[in-house]
Amino acid sequence: MGGLFMRKFKGCFEPGTILYLDNTDNVFKYIIKEETMNRKEFDEFIQNFITEQSNLMKTKGKDYAGDADVLTNFKRIADNIGLSPLEAWYVYASKHWDAITTFVKTTKVTSESIRGRFIDMSNYLLLGMAIIEMTDWSKSDFDKVDDDVKYDEGKEI
Description:
Blueprint: H1 2-8, E1 18-22, E2 27-31, H2 39-65, H3 72-81, H4 85-106, H5 114-134, E3 151-152, E4 155-156
Antiparallel strand pairs: 1-2, 3-4
Helix pairs in contact: 2-5, 3-4, 4-5
């Protein structure tokens, strides 16, 4: 309801206006910010986000893995429970995606800011790609394309 309301009445409220919308189970609080984000503002947002992301990656990374092998915690956990490092990564990354999904559904967070969750998720995407980069995929079937599968308008047939 909140998203539909906001789209329907876009442009009707001044920045700084506080709206309380009843969604039967929750009351959503929207603080109207700017209506648009121009390219310059977006570029500044990206730079700030990347700086914050990088700083967090360095800080947390040392706590989890040290400097010798930044992926050691995924390898260690994977070895302990019989998974691949990529599968161990998936478990950790999923918890952040779950928290983001909960925020999308409820617009509420309880333990970390939603910005922090997005920063964590973006860092986990980088870590997942690093695991893929360090893996010798030539010894696996992960990079092989099944030429026998036929597609019609993007759907497997």
